[in-house]
Design goal:
alpha+beta, VC0802-like, two-stranded antiparallel sheet, 2 helices, 14% helix, elongated
């Protein structure tokens, strides 16, 4: 994170961030509460399971999601590079504001180290330009290959 922007009245530092744009398409899938993770769910640069009392949501590679499964498909993932300080306020608002101004819908996921932003594939370049317009850096990421599942013998 670097400090950059100022206002006309008083210099107020605005944080800027470096983001990675991942090339694979992701999906956010809705499953029933307490559902098992389906065998078709593949890991990608982001794989997340979130369970509440009313639903289970799964973020996974979009390539293997059956067409009849309910969810948001065709999403591009962006991640803030580096480990974020969990005590710093305003990270999400700083990065969501430009997307809201461009009327881009977004799913957010926070991990211990960073924040992820999932936007429709067709809006990915607009999102990247909106962030660049605020002084943030967006670079293409090299995805980590999915972990291979060991075969049971």
């Amino acid at each position: 994170m670097t400090e950059t922007t100022e206002t006309a009245e008083t210099p107020v530092p605005r944080p800027t961030y470096e983001l990675q744009q991942f090339p694979e398409k992701l999906a956010v899938i809705k499953l029933p509460a307490g559902a098992e993770i389906p065998s078709w769910a593949e890991s990608s640069s982001l794989f997340s399971i979130t369970a509440t009392a009313t639903e289970t949501s799964l973020v996974c590679a979009g390539r293997s999601v059956p067409t009849k499964v309910t969810g948001a498909k065709g999403l591009t993932g962006f991640a803030v590079m580096g480990e974020l300080d969990n005590n710093v306020a305003g990270v999400l608002s700083e990065l969501l504001a430009p997307l809201a101004e461009e009327e881009i819908s977004v799913f957010t996921i926070s991990t211990h180290d960073t924040n992820w932003f999932l936007v429709p594939v067709l809006a990915a370049e607009t999102a990247a330009e909106a962030w660049r317009g605020r002084g943030h850096t967006v670079a293409l990421a090299v995805p980590v290959p999915p972990a291979r599942r060991s075969k049971k013998k």
